[in-house]
Design goal:
The chain is α+β, with helices and mostly antiparallel strands. The protein is built from five helices and five strands; from the N terminus they run H-H-E-E-E-H-H-E-H-E. The strands form two sheets. The chain has a three-stranded antiparallel β-sheet. Strands 1-2 form a two-stranded antiparallel ribbon. Helix 3 crosses helix 4. The protein is elongated. Bound molecules: L-tyrosinamide (TYC). L-tyrosinamide binds next to strand 3, helix 3 and helix 4. The site of L-tyrosinamide has 13 residues, from strand 3, helix 3 and helix 4.
C-alpha cells in the first residue's frame, strides 16, 4: 500500500524539498510508518528513508514583571493588575504586595508580542499618570 500526503500534493507551490515530506509506507500505519528514532529520518520494512518534519514548535515565552519603587501608590499598581492582567482584587493585591516586599514580581507569562504589548501599555499608562512604575519582560 502506498500513502501520499495529499495536503502537500495539492499545494501548487510545492517544491522538491517539501516533496521529501511525502510519506511512503508499506501500509501498517503507525501514523504513516517508519518512526523517527531522533535523527529526523525514519525507516520502514521497505527500507525507504522517510524524512519527518514536525509542523509546529512551541513558542518562546516571556514573563512580564513589575518592579517596586517608593513612589507609585499601591492602589495604582492594583488597578494595573486588574486592568491589564485581568486579576481580581485579591490576586492583584497579592501580586502588588509581593512586588512591594521582594522588589519584583510576575504579572503573567505570554508569547513575545503579547508580553511586549503589555509592557508598552503599562509604561504608557504609568507615564500618562506621572508614576515612575517600571514594567519589563524577561525570557522564561
Ligand atoms: N512600594 C510602593 C509603595 O509603597 C508600592 C508599589 C508596589 C510600587 C509595586 C510599585 O510595582 C510596584 N507605595
Amino acid at each position: 500500500m502506498l500513502y501520499i500526503d495529499w495536503m502537500n500534493y495539492r499545494d501548487e507551490k510545492i517544491d522538491f524539498e517539501n516533496a521529501m515530506h511525502w510519506v511512503l509506507s508499506d501500509g501498517d500505519d503507525e501514523r504513516f510508518d517508519g518512526g523517527d528514532n531522533g535523527d529526523g529520518f525514519g525507516e520502514d520494512e521497505t527500507n525507504i528513508l522517510l524524512k519527518t518534519r514536525p509542523k509546529t514548535k512551541k513558542p518562546d515565552l516571556y514573563k512580564v514583571l513589575l518592579l517596586n519603587d517608593d513612589y507609585t501608590p499601591m492602589e495604582f499598581v492594583i488597578h494595573i493588575l486588574e486592568r491589564f492582567f485581568s486579576k481580581n482584587k485579591q490576586e492583584a493585591t497579592d501580586i502588588m504586595m509581593h512586588v512591594h516586599r521582594r522588589g519584583v514580581g510576575i504579572c503573567g507569562i505570554f508569547t513575545f508580542e503579547i508580553a511586549e504589548t503589555k509592557v508598552v501599555q503599562i509604561m504608557d499608562f504609568a507615564r500618562a499618570n506621572e508614576q515612575p512604575l517600571q514594567c519589563i519582560m524577561e525570557k522564561e
